[in-house]
Known about the structure:
Layout: E1 2-5, E2 16-19, E3 29-38, H1 41-48, E4 64-72, E5 84-88, E6 97-101, E7 105-107, H2 114-117, H3 121-134, E8 142-145, H4 151-163, E9 166-171, H5 176-182, E10 186-189, H6 195-198, E11 205-210, H7 215-223, E12 224-232, H8 246-255, H9 263-269, E13 272-275, H10 285-300, E14 308-313, H11 317-325, E15 332-336
Parallel strand pairs: 8-9, 8-11, 9-10, 11-12, 12-13, 14-15
Antiparallel strand pairs: 1-2, 3-4, 3-6, 3-15, 4-5, 5-7
Amino acid sequence: MRQIWFPKAGTPDVIEVREAPDPTPGPGEVRIKVAAAGVNFADLMARMGIYPDAPSFPMVVGYEVSGTVDALGAGVDAALEGASVVAMTQFGGYASSLVVPAVQVAAIPMGLDLVTAAAIPVTGATAWMMLEVMGRVRAGDRVLVHSAGGGVGLMALDLLKWRGAFAIGTASPGKHAFLRERGYDQLIDYRSQDFAAVLADAPGLDLVLDPIGGAYWGKGLDLLRAGGRLICFGMSANATSNTRSVLTVMKNMVAVPWLRTNPVALINDNKGVMGVNMGHMWHESERVAGWLRKLLALWEQGVVRPVIHATVPFDQAGEAHRILHDRENRGKVLLIP
């Protein structure tokens, strides 16, 4: 098999493609011949050496794949042999062959091609947990989505429109026409506008989805109405360049509204702060796989509409990382073995 390795911390130039023996599934596991592997911002932070959950260097990252089951371990339902599936994996997904527990896979419905399916697992499960499990979004809710043009932002939009919410997104101006056509009700240019100032005199927000962190979290809290919830699902402000900056990380940590997010302050403000990290959900793999099956069913209904910005060969994995670093992507970037 072929794998994408990060031998050390650094820019995308450090990435290497290496050959290794195909893995063998153990009891309760399946092996997937990978068709596509998703690229997520956590992968970039791991390569830079600033992702606390990442393995030690050298490492192979990757949280999601699509492909075909080509080998079964003991005790696995024989019906899975040859099945087209998506799966989330605790690293190792940047590979042409991958072994995962059978409970983590979900069958791809007829009509959904393998490559497009790879755009659903991480972005879909993250959006589902934020909006359906934690946010409990409902018709008429006013929801602010940062990084609206990314994979999670677009998946969240599909679920917001399904529930009848009012969707506000922040994105660079070059993405606005596309995002408006996709269904965002209001768009803010984060490069030239302060979203807090734009929304200061508008009705309060019911929900804010924020992968950026730092000072953004305090501004989001200010915009919430009573009963509103801020959901934090990343800290991309720590990765504004291709290399690690301790000073940037320290500045963003200082900017976090620590005093305003303690239980007493939240009680007095009638607001909530929640956090989502799908990389900490492996103890509930069956539950997450159930969410994936619901999302795939919503694809069949035309609700979930995956957007693929680019498919990049393994040999050009550095380009895939550059696209995300430069915030160019409209939707998902996928690696193709």
